[in-house]
Amino acid sequence: MKVIVVGCTHAGTTAVKNILAEQPDVSLTVYEKNDNVSFLSCGIALYVEGLVKDVQGLFYSNPEELASLGANVQMEHEVLDIQLADKTMTVKNLQTGEIFTDTFDKLVMTTGSWPIVPPIPGIKSENILLCKNFHQAQTIIAKAQDAKKITVVGGGYIGIELVEAFVENGKEVVLIDGLDRILNRYLDAPFTDILEKELTERGVTLALGQTVQEFVADAEGKVAKVVTSEDSFASDLVILCVGFRPNTSLLKDQVDMLPNGAIIVDEYMRTSNPDVLAAGDSAVVHYNPTGEASYIPLATNAVRQGLLVGKNLVAPTLRYRGTQGTSGLYLFGQKIGSTGLTVTAAKMLGLNVGSTIMTDNYRPEFMPTTEAVLMEIVYEKDTQRIVGAQLMSKYDITQSANTLSLAIQEKLTLEDLALTDFFFQPHFDRPWNYLNLLAQKALAEANAK
Ligand SMILES: Cc1cc2nc3c(=O)[nH]c(=O)nc-3n(C[C@H](O)[C@H](O)[C@H](O)COP(=O)(O)OP(=O)(O)OC[C@H]3O[C@@H](n4cnc5c(N)ncnc54)[C@H](O)[C@@H]3O)c2cc1C
User: Fold this and answer.
1) Does 78 share its domain with 133?
2) Do 102 and 171 belong together in one domain?
């Protein structure tokens, strides 16, 4: 059987390793248009800040490793066209310019995503950069060296992490977002209020609820000013972090997709064409809080789905458990975990949810130190099923977001969590763990209504 994997970052690398482990006899070719595999974009902000010194540490595999496992790895080869009807594709060797045709029995689409570039006047000016791959990370670092005023457009986790990195490097930073809160997708207002105050105190100019109208360039064509709906900001460098779009035009009208182009896959990563599997940022995820297909581009989803491609290439074997879009964030000493739906997101989807917020110290006050934990739990009003949660503390409570992620995946209710057996040891928590207490408070409030 001849298998072709298109795209080799997280979903592709994991798929290749698992296909070859499960099906050692297949002939497997990988086409990757870039010159590297497995780059961890999540390390870009740490690299920009200078916390990560050796950028090679941000790769966990390489073409040689995949070749040693038996893959025919074709780097700097771009797939230009795919015809599923006759199982052929056109490929361009980007080094030589040669264009050729290849054929396959099974196709794995792990072409990922690309940053959205909105059609704003002046967007092609020099020094307006994207932040996704290794080469872009290098460019950001090189250009930031001479930049004094940096504007980040987009207040999601990628934008915020870059803002922190630039602040730590002594830059004057402006953060622009069209919504009126940062991290809108991951956190509700009680959390973002604290973080926005922290950003402002560190000197960041927050331009929230403003949309970029124009980038004005200087005589040399370099960006000089960002004009928004309400203001304008002198800028030497702009980083665009306004979201991602799946790279799936190669299969347009050939497999089923969401309106944004994410390939629809079933629980075994099969697309609407039985010989095509997809994984990672090019595909949808099954979002457990709503039970629907959703687009949540995360490396965690990419590696899980990549593994499932390997397990299910020939026959459905291992079922995908879906995702809660669980995320962790470290910002100016605050450790933040978020899973599932926020209240804001649930209301936008028209869901009937309740929520409870509380603050408690993570361990007893008789200990030499303790730290407050701000927590929120979101639940379906009708069933009291948990659909989301957020936690923030100076103490590292982020693993609790993973506990809550499992609770959502397993459809636990407030009552289940209120009585779950968590250990007690004064170094770490109280006789009632703070997650028990959060669920108990939510249960009392929900039942009182
Ligand atoms: C700055 C930043 C920080 C992030 N931080 C986190 C984090 O902390 N945690 C987390 O879980 N996620 C994080 N993510 C998201 C994560 O990086 C993505 O979800 C992940 O990269 C998806 O992997 P993928 O393999 O599906 O797709 P991609 O990484 O998009 O890779 C797709 C690959 O396909 C190749 N390709 C595309 N088209 C073709 C073609 N026609 N021919 C040949 N090759 C092709 C591309 O060159 C690329 O190498 C972050 C992303 C960014 C940008």
Assistant:
1) no
2) no
Q: Does pTM top 0.90 for this prediction? A: yes
* Per-residue model confidence as pLDDT tens digits over 96-119: 999 999 999 999 999 999 999 999
- What is the tally of structural domains in the chain? 3
Between the CA of 211 and the centroid of ligand 1 the distance, in Å, is 26
Q: What is the CATH number of the domain that holds 140?
A: 3.50.50.60
Counting ligand 1 atoms within 8 A of each CB, the residue from 5, 10, 31 with the most, and so the one to mutate, is 10
Interatomic CA distance for residues 133 and 115, integer angstroms: 10
> Which domain, by its residues, includes 290?
2-34+51-113+244-312
Do strands 2-6 and 106-109 pair parallel, antiparallel, or not at all (unpaired)?
A: parallel
Tell the residue nearest (CA) to atom 4 of ligand 1.
42
Ligand 1 atom at minimum distance from 162 CA: 1
Residue 228 lies in a domain: yes
Determine the Cα–Cα distance for residues 230 and 208; give it in Å rounded to an integer. Answer: 10
Asked if 224 and 235 count as a contact pair (C-beta separation under 8 A), the reply is yes
Q: What SS3 state is found at 305?
A: helix
Residue found under tokens 């074997």: 317
d(CA 355, CA 353): 7
pLDDT in tens, 33-46: 999 999 999 899 99
